[in-house]
Design brief:
By secondary structure, the chain is mainly α. It is 58% helix and 5% strand. The chain has one domain.
Length: 293
């Protein structure tokens, strides 16, 4: 096989800077979060929101999301931590990988909701502002899977096949050298979905959580076929992996919500409740003004 006929994998995903290990997996999550905040901030302000609110909300959403992602991973793959010969305390070693996107979304949403209540902004407007940025963040995060040589798909001889070291190949696949780069498929799918949300939102002004519902629909529709390619160990319900069933359920709920709210107009949703209060105060003559001299 020629060098140009496959995608080589990195030899390692951790770099030591003195006593501090820099992990590609964690670095991807951090960079992705920063990019998502930047995109969300810009979109939120364009909708009439205050400067800096998305960053404040992220302080709540990110740790909640990480905890939720870990809980989902551990609860759906408990045999990795609680079966014979395993160490339950390893469930807390989040730096070794193992985060579930559905737990991240649920946990992050809970943290964001709490923050929205504290800062006086509409939760759905924040979710809509963040929708495309979340997809970009997820795309960046998948690069960490590339460095870890994990979550790849079935063997393939396509020119874009991903070379996987023998130590990382699952049982029964030792004789194969290249596999479907499902991390790359999802990365490209997410970026395309993010661009599509932005384009549709510009034309139809999606509000009331509809942009976020579109995010859920687009992401899960891609996750179903990408998940079907993967060969890493996963729990199944019937013929499908657990994440396939989760994608189907999330897609269905999001599609029902998107369809049921299709007539909702942009004027129906206050983006920033404190802004509305300030406007009301000014209308009533209660705003602060400089003293007359």
């Amino acid at each position: 096989m020629s060098v140009a006929s496959y995608i080589p994998s990195p030899s390692h995903g951790v770099w030591d800077i003195g006593p501090i290990p820099i992990r590609a997996y964690a670095l991807g999550i951090i960079i992705g979060a920063i990019v998502a905040i930047m995109i969300g901030e810009r979109r939120f302000q364009a909708r009439g929101g205050r400067d800096g609110v998305i960053g404040d909300i992220a302080i709540w959403a990110i740790p909640f999301g990480i905890v939720g992602a870990r809980i989902y991973h551990v609860s759906t793959d408990p045999e990795l931590y609680f079966s014979d010969g395993k160490h339950p305390l390893n469930a807390f070693k989040i730096w070794e990988g193992g985060l579930g996107i559905w737990g991240a979304i649920a946990g992050g949403a809970l943290g964001a909701y709490i923050a929205c209540r504290r800062y006086g902004v509409t939760f759905s407007s924040v979710a809509d502002a963040l929708a495309p940025g979340l997809l970009v963040a997820q795309a960046i995060g998948r690069i960490g899977n590339y460095f870890n040589q994990e979550l790849f798909g079935k063997p393939t001889t396509k020119p874009w096949g991903l070379e996987i070291d023998a130590a990382h190949r699952p049982d029964g696949y030792a004789q194969f050298a290249t596999f479907h780069p499902t991390f790359l498929y999802e990365l490209l799918w997410n970026l395309a979905a993010a661009a599509l949300i932005i384009a549709i939102d510009r034309k139809f002004k999606l509000t009331g959580g509809r942009a976020f519902a579109l995010y859920a629909m687009l992401y899960t529709s891609g996750r179903v076929w990408i998940e079907a390619l993967r060969i890493d160990e996963a729990n199944h319900i019937g013929p499908f992996r657990l994440n396939v069933w989760t994608s189907i359920i999330v897609f269905t709920v999001a599609a029902i919500f998107f369809s049921a709210t299709r007539k909702r107009g942009a004027e129906e949703e206050p983006v920033d409740e404190t802004t509305d209060e300030r406007v009301d105060d000014e209308a009533n003559g209660e705003s602060e003004s400089e003293p007359t001299t």
